[in-house]
Design a protein that fits this description.
- The complex is a heterodimer of chains A (356) and B (347).
- Chain A is of the alpha/beta class.
- Chain A folds into 3 domains: 19-106 and 189-237, Rossmann fold (3-Layer(aba) Sandwich); 113-187, no CATH class; 242-271 and 286-355, no CATH class.
- Chain A has 12 helices and 12 strands.
- Chain A is globular, with a radius of gyration of 21 Å.
- Chain B has 347 residues and is α/β, with parallel strands linked by helices.
- Chain B has a domain at 13-31 and 46-265: 3-Layer(aba) Sandwich (Rossmann fold), CATH 3.40.50.300.
- Chain B is 31% helix and 22% strand.
- In chain B, helix 7 (205-222) links the parallel strand 7 and strand 8 (225-230).
- The longest helix of chain B has 18 residues, at 205-222.
- The two termini of chain B are 32 Å apart.
- Classes of the chains: A alpha/beta (356), B alpha/beta (347).
Chain lengths: 356, 347
């Protein structure tokens, strides 16, 4: 850990600007069936040392936006527009070679399924050192030393021997650890974790999450944590973005989202999870219906077809008018809903909170 | 294998205390590991299920929880006789069904049905929904009074599918809807017991809640018993009457739901419960956490004595030498297999 190669952040030049800023990001895929609007105007900011959680169901656009930050849509048919500012550099307009220089060095990603994310033919050690050798003009021995160090740091027993193993010789938890080690090889300033623990058992999940927290403290990296598990979000993040149908429907401080949510979809999410610390004998508050098709997104509010609170809206039409993502209060708490804020607060305290 | 106490039977859950439906005693499934191609010789055995005692009463839900590789799915497959036990007994409503052949097993298959984890691979893509849900009627040669088609459509309506979609194929449905097809198929012959093997783990949270609610409604309406296998402790807490925690092919602790979650005695149960992140940021900060190290040992060569000892912070010499039996402890029906059981507040 001594020879850390973090590029000294040139933050002075753009003081006051956040480390990562995503502005009006849109990702659309032209397909035979029509244009798939996976992400429609995503905005968020993230500072170093902080963790942002992106929550949503499958098809809400959370993974697609993270791939856009990694620049992995470049060269595909996907149409990406908007701006992504990372430490003074704009990523959307960046060319592939430039992006390649950044990827692995500044931005790294932990994928959901470690078995398919690692190459089965190459030794774990070779896969770990690859990015390091590309980005640093260093001899192989240095790369190996660093890889062994990191494997040890993420808790793999006898790392100097395991360095020569193939991925199939690792267990699921160990593979995920190796993935994290791989992502950390170049001390990235931004780490994107796409459902890093979904495939793992709870005890291993707890180990991996603790590990990510410890490493974040050590390297002061920013983490984007994409998950559908609200427990993981509560444990890991400071700020949360709730996505639905390719749009942000609510964002804010983790406590705002869990204790003072104002968007009916967030209410639905919180109500639909069973809790481990109490026995709810009543029914779960499920959200009726299914997520919208991204080809035929509802004209108005994306959540309108499934929303049970439309009668509280005054002077707007949920089916035809898209509500703005408006800030409420002083904190960075933003909500996209036509119901006025006072009424939403009242609805939450009277109807939703007692049943959570 | 493990000592069988009659305590479980005598003090079984009273609230949902119907007749005893299913009982397993010392249930075992060893998968042989062989070497050689022509002259195969057995070099070992994966002890997937190694002496499991379970009992389920009519109308109740028994939750089985554990990490991957602990044998919970194999247990479910043994109970439905999709797999052949290598030891122990299974009795269903008083009759021994452990080694019944296909023909003699058939009448029991009406009573025991299964819902599978993966709603994509558990439905035949070449068959229409009507054929899939109607298959149990054909196989069991059950004539419905109203005709099979009508019966299937009633079922579809009951589980929340549009009966007009009778002639559609599985690929035309979403994951949640497919799981409803699986539920309708399991429900077709009005079974007494449904084995649910991770029925909601492949679904999104909002859809998961819909299916859990559906399963609960159906249980009430048809007096079903569920053997509910899952790795998600919150779902298990929500749906179960009683819970059994498995580790490496054995039940390490079993109790009524609230007793288990509030007064767990086995260190593995403590570790499991403390590892579940709670959807509550303030509570998350306050919670005590037990960090387990390492992975589950290989079931090919499980540790001597207590199987959890290699990861247990309380392990002493006796744990390696002697296997702790499942003993009655605390409230009636609460059993734990540990040499040093103690209560601890973890959730």
């Amino acid at each position: 850990m001594t020879e850390s190669v973090t590029s000294a952040p040139p933050a002075d030049t753009r003081a006051g600007k956040p480390f990562l800023e995503v502005k009006d990001l849109q990702v659309h895929f032209p397909t035979d069936d029509g244009l798939v609007k996976a992400v429609n105007g995503l905005n968020f900011t993230l500072e170093r040392g902080k963790t942002l959680g992106i929550v949503g169901e499958s098809g809400s656009g959370k993974s697609v936006s993270s791939l856009a930050i990694m620049g992995l849509h470049k060269g595909s048919k996907a149409k990406v527009s908007g701006e992504i500012w990372l430490d003074g550099a704009e990523l959307v307009s960046m060319s592939v070679p430039e992006m390649r220089a950044l990827r692995g060095q500044q931005v790294a990603m932990i994928f959901q399924d470690p078995l398919s994310a690692m190459h089965p033919f190459y030794r774990v050690g070779d896969q770990l050192t690859e990015a390091f050798l590309v980005h640093n003009n260093a001899p192989k021995a240095v790369a190996k030393k660093r890889a062994v160090e990191l494997l040890d740091r993420v808790g793999i027993p006898s790392p100097d021997k395991r360095f020569f193993d193939y991925p199939h010789q690792f267990s699921g938890g160990m593979r995920q650890r190796a993935m994290i080690a791989m992502a950390l090889m170049c001390d990235p300033a931004l780490l994107i974790a796409d459902e890093p623990t979904t495939a793992l058992d709870v005890t291993v999940q707890a180990q991996i999450l603790d590990l990510m927290k410890d490493l974040q403290k050590e390297f002061n990296s920013a983490i984007i944590l994409i998950t559908h598990d609200l427990g993981v979000v509560a444990k890991m993040t400071e700020n949360v973005v709730v996505m639905y149908g390719g749009r942000v429907v609510e964002s804010g401080n983790v406590r705002d989202i869990f204790y003072r949510p104002e968007m009916p979809y967030t209410w639905g999410l919180l109500g639909s999870i069973p809790r481990v610390n109490r026995s709810g004998d009543g029914r779960l508050k499920s959200i009726r219906g299914t997520p919208p098709s991204l080809i035929n997104l509802p004209k108005g509010c994306p959540f309108q077809p499934r929303c049970d609170y439309q009668e509280h809206v005054e002077g707007a039409n949920c089916a035809t008018e898209l509500p703005e993502l408006l800030q409420i209060g002083q904190e960075q708490h933003r909500v996209r809903c036509h119901i006025n804020s006072e009424q939403r607060k009242q609805l939450f305290t009277e109807q939703i909170k007692p049943s959570l | 294998m493990s000592t069988t106490t009659s305590a479980e039977q005598a003090t079984g859950k009273q609230a949902a205390g119907g007749e005893l439906l299913l009982e397993t005693r010392g249930l075992q499934r060893y998968f042989p590991v062989t070497q050689g191609i022509i002259f195969q010789k057995q070099t070992g055995a994966v002890k997937a299920v190694d002496g499991v005692d379970l009992s389920i009463r009519a109308g109740e839900t028994l939750g089985v929880v554990g990490e991957s590789g602990c044998g919970k799915t194999t247990t479910g497959r043994l109970v439905t006789r999709l797999d052949e036990p290598t030891g122990g007994t299974i009795s269903f409503m008083g009759s021994d069904i452990t080694h019944l052949n296909r023909a003699r097993m058939r009448p029991f298959r009406r009573e025991i049905q299964m819902i599978f984890q993966d709603p994509f691979s558990s439905l035949n893509p070449r068959q229409t929904v009507g054929t899939i849900i109607g298959a149990p009627f054909d196989i069991q040669k059950v004539k419905s009074e109203t005709g099979t088609k009508k019966a299937v459509q009633t079922l579809m309506e009951r589980v929340g599918l549009n009966p007009e979609h009778y002639n559609r194929y599985p690929h035309e449905f979403s994951g949640g809807q497919r799981q409803r097809i699986g539920v309708a198929r399991a429900l077709a012959l009005r079974p007494k017991l449904i084995v649910c093997d991770e029925p909601v783990s492949a679904l999104d949270v909002s859809i998961q809640a819909q299916i859990v609610n559906l399963l609960e409604d159906l249980q009430e309406e048809f007096d079903l018993a569920y053997l509910f296998i899952a790795h998600d402790l919150s779902v298990i807490r929500h749906i179960s009457d009683r819970v059994a925690v498995m580790y490496l092919g054995k039940v390490v602790e079993t109790a009524d739901r609230d007793e288990l979650y509030n007064h767990a005695r086995h260190p593995y149960t403590h570790a499991l419960l403390s590892a579940v992140p709670e959807a509550d940021p303030d509570a998350e900060e306050r919670r005590e956490r037990i960090r387990l190290t390492g992975d589950v040992p290989s079931p090919l060569n499980p540790p001597s004595g207590c199987r959890f000892r290699t990861r247990c912070w309380k392990a002493q010499e006796i744990c390696a030498a002697e296997e702790p039996p499942l003993m009655q402890i605390g409230a009636p029906g609460h059993q734990a297999a540990c040499h040093f059981p103690e209560e601890r507040d973890v959730v």
